[in-house]
Automatic annotation (TrEMBL):
<feature type="region of interest" description="Disordered">
    <location>
        <begin position="1"/>
        <end position="20"/>
    </location>
</feature>
<dbReference type="InterPro" id="IPR020835">
    <property type="entry name" value="Catalase_sf"/>
</dbReference>
<dbReference type="InterPro" id="IPR024708">
    <property type="entry name" value="Catalase_AS"/>
</dbReference>
<dbReference type="InterPro" id="IPR018028">
    <property type="entry name" value="Catalase"/>
</dbReference>
<keyword id="KW-0376">Hydrogen peroxide</keyword>
<dbReference type="Pfam" id="PF00199">
    <property type="entry name" value="Catalase"/>
</dbReference>
<keyword id="KW-0560">Oxidoreductase</keyword>
<comment type="similarity">
    <text>Belongs to the catalase family.</text>
</comment>
<dbReference type="Pfam" id="PF06628">
    <property type="entry name" value="Catalase-rel"/>
</dbReference>
<dbReference type="InterPro" id="IPR011614">
    <property type="entry name" value="Catalase_core"/>
</dbReference>
<keyword id="KW-0408">Iron</keyword>
<dbReference type="InterPro" id="IPR010582">
    <property type="entry name" value="Catalase_immune_responsive"/>
</dbReference>
<keyword id="KW-0575">Peroxidase</keyword>
<protein>
    <submittedName>
        <fullName>Catalase</fullName>
    </submittedName>
</protein>
<keyword id="KW-0479">Metal-binding</keyword>
<dbReference type="InterPro" id="IPR024711">
    <property type="entry name" value="Catalase_clade1/3"/>
</dbReference>
<feature type="domain" description="Catalase core">
    <location>
        <begin position="5"/>
        <end position="387"/>
    </location>
</feature>
Length: 481
């Protein structure tokens, strides 16, 4: 028999009857177990993630099937056959904890690789692009997706008001309103690093890289009606599906592919490769398969393994560096700041976030510190065995140019790639896209918002715009004026 103890390990005699003065009470302050139990219960909730609050996680392994040392010195991509353990978290973006899993939304796709040179995170989505490309716009964008401050209801009016005033969102909106806005399961989604990153090899040569995780289960989606039905029956459908697959040994797998772009070519590509609202053509830079990962272990404790997990695009390892993508640069700050707020200054000491490698530096103390052994807490110092800088981790110097200013972000063409995506959709997919837009944009109260947004669709592709106008009963003269 396992004996009941307090959190301090003391044997605990009674977990069902409070200590009272006499049979009828009152309760005594002396009942330390009762007071601790109530106090701890009051502190069980931590702030949920401000975005991507609801999600599912698992553990797995990445296997490198092609040595990539010609392109990056990153340890996890060097040495064919190398295996790296990982934690993954899939998520909804807009809804809170408890929100139904199958509401149309982009889905998060975060991976933490526990490499031999510390943690490397890829914090992506199930779409290769994003709604905005300047970090100043992110909080406003998310406010439009969250609840109306007065009614506390989510609001199509807010969402489409923002999108229709932000043409750079058109490409992603065309994805979101398409079939991929309702994945059939997390195992049936592709994942993308979305941004362009920099790889640097041991010789100091740099390449631009984009990550693609291709589901070996195939991409499968739900129709709007199926998703609504599931939402009413099982709000946690996607979490359960992932958990059950792994429990039943039906381990989901993804091929890991990259697009590699030579450094100078990337700087002169026809689209700005640092604009995260754009893709880079697979014809120009084909996908190259470099490995596979499998998810083969469920969380043992959801709170510890998933809720306390903290991912950050700033978690990089030698051989992988950020690009000048402005949105990515904003993200390099945001996630670690969010982790300090949500989990505390020592969130990296939590088991799910701590690297499998040793940590040696001069940071000390703070709430919940698990400490670092060694008694030297300053540098420079006289001790030979104290931690020393590692020049192997130096970034590749890069040139910057121009005058400091608040520049208009990237080019003026948010339309072509949205139009091209519309063209890629089959006739059935186009029908469902128009129906989804009819449902969502159609429920907006403001006529001006409907017209403004439909003009964007029309500029992306005339047929696209005409079909939306038709579905919404808008006059084409207003769209083409
Ligand atoms: C979560 C900020 C853009 C994917 C978060 C969180 C913040 C945040 C604060 C919560 C983190 C936490 O509490 O642990 C931002 C900012 C962005 C941005 C400021 C733009 C400037 C993006 C983009 C993507 C993305 C472009 C995908 C390509 C995710 C994912 C999560 C997340 C997947 C969930 C991470 C997890 O599973 O714990 N974001 N985000 N975000 N974001 Fe972003």
């Amino acid at each position: 028999m396992t004996k009941l103890t307090t959190d301090e390990g003391q044997p605990w005699a009674d977990n069902n009857h409070s200590l009272t003065a006499g049979n009828r009470g009152p309760v005594l302050l002396q009942d330390y177990q009762l007071i601790e139990k109530l106090a701890h219960f009051n502190r069980e909730r931590i702030p949920e993630r401000v975005v991507h609050a609801k999600g599912a996680g698992a553990k797995g392994v990445f296997t490198l099937t092609r040595d990539m040392s010609d392109y990056t010195k990153a340890d996890l991509f060097n040495g064919k056959g190398k295996q790296t353990p990982l934690t993954i978290r899939f998520s909804e973006v807009a809804g809170e904890l408890g929100y139904p899993d199958t509401i149309r939304d982009v889905r998060g796709f975060s991976i933490k690789f526990y490499t031999n040179e510390g943690n490397y995170d890829i914090v992506g989505n199930n779409t290769p692009i994003f709604f905005v490309n300047d970090p100043l716009k992110f909080p406003d964008f998310i406010h439009s997706q969250k609840r109306d401050p007065a009614t506390h209801l989510r609001s199509e009016d807010m969402q489409w008001d923002f999108w229709s005033h932000s043409p750079e969102s058109l490409h992603q909106v065309t994805y979101l309103m398409g079939d991929r806005g309702n994945p059939a399961s997390y195992a049936n989604m592709n994942g993308y690093g979305s941004h362009t990153f920099k790889w640097v090899n041991a010789k100091g040569e740099a390449y631009w890289v984009k990550y693609h995780f291709i589901s070996e289960q195939g991409v499968k989606n739900m129709t709007e009606d199926q998703a609504a039905e599931v939402a009413s029956e099982n709000t946690d459908y996607l979490i359960q599906d992932l958990y059950d697959r792994i429990k039943n040994g039906d381990y989901p797998k993804w091929k890991v592919c990259v697009q590699l772009i030579p450094y100078e070519e990337g700087l002169n590509y026809k689209y700005d490769i640092f604009d995260v609202t754009k893709t880079v053509s697979h014809k120009d830079y084909p996908l190259q398969e470099i490995g596979e990962f499998v998810l083969n272990e469920n969380p043992e404790n959801y709170f510890n393994d998933v809720e306390e997990a903290s991912f950050s695009p700033a978690n990089l390892v030698p051989g992988i560096e950020p690009s000048m993508d402005k949105l990515l640069q904003g993200r390099l700050f945001a996630y670690k700041d969010a982790a300090r707020y949500r989990l505390g200054a020592n969130y990296e000491h939590l088991p799910v976030n701590s690297p499998k490698t040793e940590v040696h530096n001069y940071a000390r103390d703070g709430y919940m510190s698990q400490g670092q052994n060694g008694d030297v807490n300053y540098e420079p110092n006289q001790y030979e065995d104290a931690p020393r800088e590692d020049p192997h981790a130096k970034i590749k110097p890069f040139a910057v140019e121009g005058e400091a200013n608040s520049y208009k972000t990237y080019d003026e063409d948010p339309y072509s790639q949205a139009g091209a995506l519309y063209h890629v959709y089959s006739d059935d997919e186009k029908d469902r896209l128009i129906q989804a837009i009819k449902k969502h944009l159609g429920s907006v109260k403001s006529h001006d918002t409907k017209v403004r947004q439909t003009k964007l669709f029309y500029r992306a592709d005339h047929d696209y715009g005409k079909r939306v106008a038709d579905a919404l009963g808008l006059n084409m003269d207003e769209i083409t004026e």
